[in-house]
Amino acid sequence: MRNLRKKCLILLFVIGLPVLSYPFTTISESSFDFGIYTGRSVMDESGSASGTPLGIFGGVSFGITFIRAGVHFFADSTVIDNFSRTSMGLSGRFQLAIPIIPVEPYIKIGTGIIDVFSTPGSVADRKFFSTVLYGAGVEVSLIPYIKPFGEYTYWNSKWNGNTAKNHAINFGVKIAM
After folding, report:
1. pTM for the full model?
2. Residue 177: its H or E element
3. For the chain, where are the alpha helices, taking DSSP H only?
4. Beta-carbon neighbour count of residue 101 at 10 Å?
5. How far apart (Å, rounded) are the C-alpha atoms in residues 137 and 104?
6. How far apart are CA 28 and CA 135, in angstroms?
7. How far apart are CA 74 and CA 57, in angstroms?
8. CATH hierarchy code of domain 28-176
9. For a tag on the chain, would you pick the N or C end, based on fewer CB atoms within 10 A?
10. Domain positions in the chain
11. pLDDT per residue over 42-91, tens digit each?
12. What CA–CA distance (Å, rounded) separates 72 from 101?
């Protein structure tokens, strides 16, 4: 009886380990991504200063069966009342991708490598690595290669000794090939 139990445990380990580790060791996809987005951005907590962001991004995503990661270059231009911020930078993205569910949540973090700030009547001020962004969103995978998405992004920019913070709700389309 003891010998049978030992053989069953060994068999379970030999068969079970590869089966359980399969989703974490199999490369399921890599893709080149390109996307555009727009939405609504609010500068302060009261919502009185608002505007429309417009952005594009491109990069590469790769992953295993359930988890994907991506690195994207982005360009985002946001005009809020009399304040304008254009950021070009790099963002990283981590996504949960379950093949049988078409909704894929993700989180992202990034930094503006070059940021240009301006107000009416002033000279545009260029800063380097002065913006940080955090965000979370959801992609929908109903059509191959075309993925609509919605996301929330928090931008924190340092400019002329001040901190400009804005919250953005964006909607867009990503093409993944």
Report:
1. 0.77
2. none
3. 2-25
4. 10
5. 8
6. 25
7. 4
8. 2.40.160.20
9. N
10. 28-176
11. 876 555 678 889 999 999 888 877 888 999 999 999 888 777 888 999 99
12. 24
